[in-house]
């Protein structure tokens, strides 16, 4: 039972970061969102570069949120892998499916199939 009390104290300690940290992270999220908006607003060319920049900025924002607001930065690596690995694998699968689909579409357009 004593071990449980230590765990509760430890997790409560992790959950309370100084307010200044939250404000700095919020400000960084605001700036990253503004940059993402302007990348699209000013129609950065070429188009794939625009997509890569917007997705990269979104991933950076997600990492900040998970690290500071979800407190994953202080969790065990196994828990972080459990939370992060499935979405990464789903994104990889989606990228493969999209690449395959565009290849098939191109082949059909070329050969009239």
Q: Structural class from helices and strands?
A: mainly alpha
Strand content: under 5%
* Number of H- or I-type helical stretches: 4
Q: Radius of gyration in whole Å, from Cα?
A: 21 Å
Order of helices and strands: HHHH
Q: Sheet bearing the most strands, described?
A: none
Mean pLDDT: 86
State the oligomer.
Answer: single chain
**DSSP E strands, number:** 0
Shape: flat
| Percent of residues in helices | over 70%
Which spans have pLDDT < 50 for at least 5 consecutive residues? 5-13
- The N- and C-terminal alpha carbons lie at a distance of 69 Å
User: How many domains?
Assistant: 2
Give the topology, please.
Layout: H1 2-15, H2 19-41, H3 47-69, H4 77-111
Which terms would index this structure?
2 domains; mainly alpha; 113 residues
Q: In a nutshell, what does this entry contain?
A:
With 113 residues, the protein is mainly alpha-helical. The protein has 4 helices and no strands. The termini are far apart.
Could you characterize what this model shows?
The protein has helices at residues 2-15, 19-41, 47-69, 77-111. By secondary structure, it is mostly helical. The longest helix is centred in the last third of the chain and has 35 residues, at 77-111. Mean pLDDT is 86; it is low at 5-13.
């Amino acid at each position: 039972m004593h071990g449980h009390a230590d765990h509760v104290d430890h997790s409560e300690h992790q959950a309370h970061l100084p307010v200044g940290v939250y404000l700095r992270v919020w400000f960084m999220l605001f700036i990253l969102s503004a940059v993402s908006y302007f990348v699209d607003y000013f129609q950065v060319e070429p188009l794939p570069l625009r997509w890569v920049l917007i997705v990269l900025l979104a991933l950076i924002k997600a990492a900040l949120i998970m690290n500071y607001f979800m407190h994953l930065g202080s969790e065990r690596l196994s828990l972080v892998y459990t939370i992060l690995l499935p979405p990464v694998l789903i994104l990889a699968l989606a990228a493969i499916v999209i690449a395959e689909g565009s290849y098939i579409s191109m082949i059909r357009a070329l050969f009239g199939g």
